[in-house]
Amino acid sequence: MDFFTTFKICGTGLSTQRAKMDVITSNLANINTTSTPEGGPYKRKMITFVAEPLKQGFDKTLEGAVQAVKVKGITEDQEGIKRVYDPAHPDADKDGFVSFPNVNAMLEMAEMITANRTYEANATAFDAAKNMAVTAMNIGK
């Protein structure tokens, strides 16, 4: 496996964790949004990942074992919409209930910490591979 393969894998890890952070921050920003263009309250977004085989050039022994990651999709969580009785609220229905988003701040913060740590781990792996490549190039000096 060449260093560029490692860089590609680390790069996909970095980009997917950045996408996860984008989804988490969107959820937190809309924690009290009761009205959306689609109608109804904001619905918590969830991101899913899928392993993607990396096309290897020379090293066929690692074929199938080396996999990158990519975003499979972003879905809306339909469960857990909170209904609160508040007839004075501008978004209250005819019965006086307001539907609030199903976003849990504690869960989102835990997801944010996980995304941050995973991003850091990918950045550290990238840096380690870069240092190995630099050391290998310095052998010939």
Name some characteristics of this structure:
141 residues; two-stranded antiparallel sheet; alpha+beta; two-stranded antiparallel ribbon; single chain
Q: How would you summarize this macromolecular structure in one to three sentences?
A:
The protein is α+β, with helices and mostly antiparallel strands and 141 residues long. 43% of the residues lie in helices and 19% in strands.
What does this molecule look like?
The chain has one domain. The protein is about 45% helix and about 20% strand. The protein has two helices and four strands, in the order αββββα. The protein has helices spanning about 5-30, 105-140; strands at about 45-55, 65-75, 80-85, 95-100. α1 (about 5-30) runs antiparallel to α2. The longest helix is centred in the last third of the chain and has 34 residues, at about 105-140.
- Strand sequence of the main sheet, in spatial order? 1-2
* Number of E strands: 4
Radius of gyration: 22 Å
- Count the domains: 1
Succession of helices and strands: HEEEEH
Strand content: 15-25%
Overall mean confidence score, pLDDT: 90
Question: What does the largest sheet look like?
Answer: 2 strands, antiparallel
| Separate helix tally | 2
Structural class: alpha+beta
Shape: elongated
**Approximate helicity band:** 40-55%
Low-pLDDT regions: none
Ends: how far apart? 23 Å
Tell me the layout of helices and strands.
Blueprint: H1 3-29, E1 45-53, E2 67-76, E3 82-85, E4 97-100, H2 105-138
Antiparallel strand pairs: 1-2, 3-4
Helix pairs in contact: 1-2
